[in-house]
Structure formats: structure tokens, C-alpha cells
Design brief:
32% of the residues lie in helices and 17% in strands. It has an eight-stranded antiparallel barrel. The protein has 408 residues and is of the alpha+beta class. The N and C termini lie far apart (76 Å). The protein contains 13 helices and eight strands.
Amino acid sequence: MSLVLLPSELLEHILIFCDPTDVAKASETCHQFHDLIYNTGDDTLWRGLYLAQGQILDDPRKCLALDGKPRPPINWRLELQRAVRANSLVVNHSPGRPGEIGTVLQTLLHLSSHVRPLSSSAFASSISKTLVSLPVQLRRGWIDLAEKQVLATHERQLVARFHTYFGITQDDLRKESLVRSRAFIYNMQNYTWDNDFGPFNVDGTVNWLHVRAVHHVVSMQVLRSTEGEVLDPAIYEYAVYPMSLPFTQIALPQDPPASSKGFNDWFSLNDVLTFEKGPGIPADTSVFEADDFQEVFRNMRVELHVLRTEPDPEYPDKPVIFFAGVMKDLNQSIMNGQVWMTSEGYVRWHFVSGEQNNAIWSSEGVQIGGLRSAYGVLGSWTTIFHDNDDPVGPFWLRKTAKAESTSA
């Protein structure tokens, strides 16, 4: 008896147990299989094939976008085909066909930006399968390969964004790469009124090349302090640490999103955070090339409280949050600022800080990953005066513990 004589429902059920690449090959064997796989008019087969990848991909029906909104409508066939293609290129360490790399980067970003939310009440079972499996696939240097290609401007932004989400790569461990990142973030010429003296473009969008440089410099400081030794790029594969892909997962609020005074604290901002600030250093790259060059980062505990909110027409359920706080480990320095959603769907931070009620430092940053992700905020600081010879440096702000008091 020929397989094509079996009922189509039974054939679909059998195909769901096959690898998607084998299903594609089966479609080439005869017209009947081709029509069954591609021309049935419903998505039963492709939905089943996608959900069969449940060990490495989240169920898209349970996923949210980074800003907490429902993800776009699911095209089961197209999304699975793109995921399989991206995985094939990554595993084979290939940039793909000419002009294809942009699509691959968009696929990787789509997968990592639409995941199931992390729940404190069901922590283990709600960890994203996608965010755990992607680093395993990418650990052998595909991102470094992508960055070496001839890329259009928007593709450079795509790979920089995904690199920031991903974490540290083999090339990041090389001295010349770190010198380039330091030379970028410590150069005051990269900070102007047009980009708000932060890691942004003149149109207000995130400059992911700048953010990636901040991530690189701060990550190396974090890894060296935790690993206790210089990592060898020849044997390094991947490090799971608070500035890597698994920590970008969007998290559900533990409590209703309101502060003690009834404000909509959609970011769960009433909390205790750690503020890690890098040094301000001249732009001369020879400074960074010296073997005895060292950066000194200051780690400070910050307690923030919501002061008030203002409506945001673009995000009615996420008003602009105004906050104030105290840097507990730095002579009780004060901090105040605001948090809001950008038109791109990212959480942006602006705050000033100083001692004895005198604002001295100005900081601009962006939340990495989904709402309330454990990754935190990356950005840049300088003085409020923004003079050409002002110091400038990176910072990393992340949540560390639940505040004992949330009174404002």
C-alpha cells in the first residue's frame, strides 16, 4: 500500500514526528506530498511541527513582546522555516547566501524578543526554552563571524543589538576588541546634544553599536571579578552571567503594578538596585593599549521610590514614571529621574545624581531585554554641564533585592 493512499489527517500526524528539514524533503518526492505539506489551506501540520520543537523553542501562543504586549499573529510555517534556516547557518558557521544575513539576524532577534514571561510563582517551569537553547547554538562564534561581514547600516545595528543581548563572544576577549570599545565609550565626541549625551541616535532611537560597546566594557569588568582570571578566547565558548541572553527574559510583576501611593509602577521600580559606574577616561587609544591599564568601577546600592506618574498617550497602561532615590554607599548621594517607553518599545532611563542636593552627574540608559528583566539598564554618564573636556563613562543599573519599604 502506498503512503499517499493513507488519509491526509494520518499523514499529517506522521509528519509531525519528523524533523522539519525531512518534511521539506518529503515535499519534493511527489505532487501529493507537496500539496499536503504546502497547499492544504490550514496550519495544522506546521503548527504541530513548530510545537514539536518545544525543547528548544517557546510555544509562541504563550509569548509576549519585550514591552509586554501580545506578540504578532503567528505564521507557523514561515516562522519555523526561518528558525530552522537560522539554526542551520549557525551550526554550520555560515553567513548564508549574499544578502541573507539581515533576515537571519531579524529571525534571531524575533526569537529572543518574543518569549514566555518569567513567573516568580512558577520560576523553573517558566524559564524560556528559547533563551536557554540559543546560546548553546551560538556559542562557537557565529556572532563574531556575522560582525566580520560587509553589512549595511541597519544590519550593523541588528547584530550589535543581538550581541548585546547574547553576552560575551570569543572576539570580545581579545585585547584589540576591548581597546576599540573603550575608545568609543570614553570619547566625548560620541556624546552630543543631538543624542542626549547617551547611547542614542539623533532621531531618539537606540544606537546599539554604542550600547554594545558599553556592554563589552562593563561585562569584562564583571567577568574578571567573578572568574578571577583572564579568559582565554581559544577555549572560551559562553558565559552565563547577569548580562547574557537568559537574563533578558520578560518577567511578570510579583504584585499588582501600583506603588504605595497608588501610582502605576509598571516597571516595579520601587526597589533596591545596584549601580555600577565606570571611570571617565581620555579618548587617546594608546592609554587603553598599555599592559598596565586598569579600570576602576564603583559599585553602589541604590534605593528608588516612585514620586509620581504622567500619562503617556502611546502607552496608556505605562505612564512616565518619575522617581527619586539615595545611593546608600556614596555619602547618601541623591538621584532623581524618569522612566518611559520609547516609540521602539524599549524602556528608557534618564536621571541626575549628586551630593548635598547638588546635581552633578547626568545619566542616560536603556533597559536591555523585556520589562522587569534581570539584565538591567546599560548607559552612559557625564556631567550635567556637558563640556567638551568633561569625563564620560559607562554604567550598569540592575535590581538586586526587594526593598523592605516602598513608601515614597
